[in-house]
């Protein structure tokens, strides 16, 4: 690779043509770009100067007729077919090698899940925390495993020179290794409807893995950052309560949360009770112990998955659903 | 020397151009146009239709560019913006570029260039025109019926779920497809069966080779578009689950189907324009075209390779790496025949006697613009760079350089080159050239900054953008205004010539192909006797004649010129 592209080309004019290089593949991508750019500029200048030269030299002058020249010349024609062919083979090759790197996620990488939907991004970190901005550590391979909730989107970080469609119904992957700390725009490149152009977020590259871990721990320490009701809403959405419990009064697989707090409950075994804090706490930890009449006993237990603090937040959230 | 005599005509004693009877005035009334079987009249109706569509699409373009003057709202909200770029793209591709050169100019010129009376199936020809009108009407209906906001590519599942008029627009595409297929079929049969004595395949003008190659693509690729459109209609109407993943379908399958048509379709757009440029450069340089066979073969090569490269639109769609690599490799093969043509045109100019007529100016502008368009295709064919550039303004710039810059400038060259033949009038060369300069400058100012926008990180189809891009967007918008004004000026110059222009001689530029042998405008049947064809690029076979203000065949210098201009059949 480096054989064809002298290193000095790699960063030439990067500021004029491209945003600063932020990943390991960017350097290669840019150098391929400049290689093609120089070849193209050469041919373009050649074509246009010949054209202008002929325009001036052979412009019509009264009394001077066109000169009869031969109407074909095999050597000439073969040479201008073969030389460009060879050049395109080189272009193909350098593009191909870089592409294979871009499309081969390394095995030792930090995995983040991505859900794209109209018109926002959700990045899910290994500890389950979900955030609409992408945070990554510098100098570490990061692999995104992406899925879409609705239509096709495409995740593009110009500074990283990588892009991959996010296709509903399948997972696609994209990986990079950031080389520079800072913040870069991240956007949707595949047209996805009304607010396509607002589907912009950012990548925050942290200087060290330590910085990143600290950020993640703080961000996901939800009780410090949010009010109990907000934190409860977060658990409601992220832990799957939302799949069975609605907030608008319609029963799904489980009873709705609307107006639940303080109401009278009738259970499958005929007994009754009032939905107070203890009732809700028990429903989360031992759901089978008191199944509401009319519903199947399908709710899983969350024992060990939610701390007491989490449960308190959820109770506050349910209490707020009047 | 024979004077052509038509005994049924009372004025037949006059040499033909004194009779002033031509295809434009041989009959009148709206019926004589709407039910005409004359390929020239049908071509003119296409030309009018294409021009109206062009200005409608152009109006949308100017509004879009105006909206992009600022990241904030200028004229409209995102919904209108999305509908407008969709209609702009769909109208320009399906109603302007695809029928532009082949259906409008091809219809008028192809039979005359062949020395034939008409195309092989005149009724089918009229039929394809009405199908085109019908399809265009569906498009306009889509605008009125709640718009269309999918982009001209109709990608699923977005197109399955949006509430806009997808079905109406797809029916329009479907009908237009038939129009395109019929025109292609007609041209193929005409070229096979109606070449005059003496015109072998390799004595055929290159414009006809280009139309032939185009017609092959039209009949082979368009059915795929039709079927894809139908499948999408069925999907929308009955939720069968072909393309929508929510129903178990595959959205990437749609992209394969779509590009299997639409990539070859870009060659339907560019090949005829290349044919035009081959004619224009040769005639206005007064030189035999260089490398005739290479140009002819390269048209066919482009048509063939064009079917094998559709996957280069899908390098980041999630298709497998192996497939991407194969498509990238084949894609480069398309660039070679295009490069060959550019070098051939340049060599044709060598030692010529170049006249900077308006048509030639457009021809030269074509070479400039097409070089940029073609060369920037290399960045997109290369895998490592396409990943960054795909779906950005770089792609927008690239395809405008080839589609609008080259195909449309090719159409403009064609219109100016054959205008004297079509209308029988000479237009103002001065104003024609001013308009050409405006188109050239406006075009480059509009689209060149977009390459930079793309590499710097501006995705396509964005209603709003990051502040840092505003400067380049403003440049681009100014260019669009200049481009719009210049095209309006061009249309004005041509229309003015119809009323005030000087009468055109049979052969104003000195072309040697057959269409320059009949009078301007041609009589209803083009030629009274099938002309004898020779090499269409021996420019020495005609010389300038002061008195007529045009060119006449060499052998007839000093003879009774009027008779020969009426017919190529000099020995009759
Ligand atoms: C000959 C005339 C050409 C025409 C009319 C043309 C037209 C187009 C159009 C319309 C698109 C955009 C499709 C979209 O909506 O995404 C496009 C993209 C593309 N063109 Fe061309 N093109 C031409 C020449 C070339 C050449 C010579 C090459 C390569 C050597 C090339 C390579 C590409 C590639 C790879 C893409 C896909 C880019 C992407 O989406 O990332 N094109 N072209
Ligand atoms: Cu999106």
Automatic annotation (TrEMBL), chain B:
Recorded GO MF terms: cytochrome-c oxidase activity; heme binding
Listed SUPFAM superfamilies: Cytochrome c oxidase subunit I-like
Membrane-protein topology: Multi-pass membrane protein
GO cellular component, one term: membrane
Transmembrane segments annotated in the record for this chain: 44-64, 84-114, 126-145, 165-189, 209-238, 258-282, 294-316, 322-347, 359-381, 393-418, 430-452, 472-499
Full protein name: Cytochrome c oxidase subunit I
Alphabetized Pfam families for the sequence: COX1 (PF00115)
Cell location: Membrane
């Amino acid at each position: 690779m480096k054989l064809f592209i002298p290193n000095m080309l790699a960063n030439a004019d990067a500021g004029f043509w491209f945003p600063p290089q932020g990943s390991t593949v960017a350097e290669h991508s840019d150098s391929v770009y400049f290689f093609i750019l120089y070849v193209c500029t050469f041919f373009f200048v050649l074509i246009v100067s010949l054209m202008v030269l002929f325009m001036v030299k052979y412009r019509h002058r009264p009394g001077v007729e066109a000169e009869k020249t031969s109407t074909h010349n095999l050597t000439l024609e073969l040479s201008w077919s073969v030389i460009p062919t060879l050049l395109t083979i080189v272009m193909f090759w350098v593009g191909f090698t870089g592409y294979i790197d871009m499309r081969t996620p390394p095995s030792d990488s930090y995995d983040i899940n991505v859900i794209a939907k109209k018109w926002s991004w959700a990045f899910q970190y290994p500890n389950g925390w979900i955030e609409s901005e992408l945070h990554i550590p510098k100098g570490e391979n990061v692999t995104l495993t992406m899925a879409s909730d609705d239509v096709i989107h495409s995740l593009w970080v110009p500074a990283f020179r990588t892009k991959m469609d996010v296709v509903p119904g399948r997972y696609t992957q994209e990986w990079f290794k950031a080389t520079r700390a800072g913040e870069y725009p991240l956007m949707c490149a595949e047209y996805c409807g009304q607010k396509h152009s607002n589907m912009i977020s950012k990548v925050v590259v942290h200087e060290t893995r330590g910085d990143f871990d600290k950020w993640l721990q703080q961000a996901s320490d939800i009780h410090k950052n949010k009010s109990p009701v907000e934190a409860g809403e977060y658990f409601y959405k992220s832990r799957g309560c939302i799949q069975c419990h609605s907030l608008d009064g319609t029963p799904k697989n489980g009873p709705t949360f609307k107006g639940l707090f303080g109401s009278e409950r009738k259970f499958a075994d005929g007994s009754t009770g009032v939905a107070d804090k203890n009732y809700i706490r028990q429903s989360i930890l031992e759901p089978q112990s008191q199944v509401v009449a009319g519903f199947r006993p399908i709710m899983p237990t969350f024992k060990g998955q939610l701390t007491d603090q989490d449960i308190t937040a959820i109770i506050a959230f349910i209490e707020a659903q009047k | 020397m024979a004077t052509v005599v038509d005994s049924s005509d009372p004025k037949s004693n006059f040499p033909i151009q004194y009779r002033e009877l031509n295809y434009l005035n041989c009959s009148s009334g709206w019926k004589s146009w709407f039910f005409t079987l004359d390929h020239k009249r049908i071509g003119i109706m296409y030309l009018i239709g294409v021009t109206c569509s062009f200005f409608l699409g152009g109006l949308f373009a100017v509004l879009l560019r105006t909206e992009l003057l600022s990241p904030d709202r200028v004229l409209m909200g995102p919904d209108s913006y999305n509908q407008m770029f969709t209609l702009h793209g769909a109208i320009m591709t399906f109603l302007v570029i695809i029928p532009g050169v082949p259906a409008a100019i091809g219809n008028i010129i192809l039979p005359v260039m062949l020395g034939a009376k008409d195309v092989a199936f005149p009724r089918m020809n009229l039929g394809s025109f009405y199908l085109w009108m019908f399809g265009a009407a569906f498009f306009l209906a889509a605008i009125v019926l709640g718009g269309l906001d999918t982009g001209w590519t109709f990608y699923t599942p977005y197109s399955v779920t949006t509430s806009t008029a997808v079905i109406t627009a797809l029916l329009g595409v479907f009908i237009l497809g038939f129009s395109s297929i019929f025109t292609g079929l007609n041209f193929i049969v005409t070229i096979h069966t109606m070449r005059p004595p003496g015109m072998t395949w390799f004595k055929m003008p290159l414009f006809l080779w280009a139309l032939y190659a185009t017609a092959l693509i039209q009949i082979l690729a368009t059915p795929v578009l039709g079927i894809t459109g139908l499948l999408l209609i069925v999907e929308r109407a009955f939720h069968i689950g072909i393309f929508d993943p929510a129903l178990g379908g595959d959205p990437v399958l749609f992209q394969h189907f779509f590009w299997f048509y639409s990539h070859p379709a870009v060659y339907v757009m560019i090949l005829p324009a290349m044919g035009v440029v081959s004619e224009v450069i040769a005639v206005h340089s007064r030189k035999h075209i260089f490398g005739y066979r290479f140009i002819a073969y390269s048209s066919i090569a482009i048509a063939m390779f064009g079917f094998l490269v559709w996957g280069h639109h899908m390098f980041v769609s999630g298709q497998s790496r192996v497939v991407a690599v194969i498509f990238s490799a084949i894609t480069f093969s398309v660039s070679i025949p295009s490069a060959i043509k550019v070098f051939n045109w340049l060599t044709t100019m060598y030692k010529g006697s170049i006249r900077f007529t308006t048509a030639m100016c457009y021809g030269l502008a074509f070479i400039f613009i097409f070089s940029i368009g073609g060369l920037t295709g290399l960045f997109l064919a290369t895998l490592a760079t396409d990943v960054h550039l795909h779906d950005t303004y770089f792609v927008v710039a690239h395809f405008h350089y080839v589609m609008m810059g080259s195909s449309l400038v090719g159409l403009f060259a064609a219109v100016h080159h054959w205008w004297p033949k079509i209308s029988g009038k000479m237009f103002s060369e001065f104003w024609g050239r001013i308009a050409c300069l405006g188109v050239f400058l406006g075009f480059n100012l509009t689209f060149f900054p977009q390459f930079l926008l793309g590499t710097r990180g501006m995705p396509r189809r964005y209603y709003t953008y990051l502040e840092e891009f505003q400067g380049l967007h403003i440049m681009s918008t100014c260019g669009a205004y200049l481009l719009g004004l210049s095209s309006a000026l061009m249309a004005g110059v041509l229309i003015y010539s119809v009323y005030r222009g000087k009468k055109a001689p049979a052969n104003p530029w000195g072309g040697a192909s057959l269409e320059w042998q009949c009078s301007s405008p041609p009589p209803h049947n083009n030629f009274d006797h099938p002309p004898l064809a020779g090499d269409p690029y021996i420019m020495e076979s005609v010389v300038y004649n002061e008195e007529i203000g045009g060119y006449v065949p060499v052998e007839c210098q000093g003879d009774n010129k009027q008779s020969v201009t009426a017919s190529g059949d000099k020995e009759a």
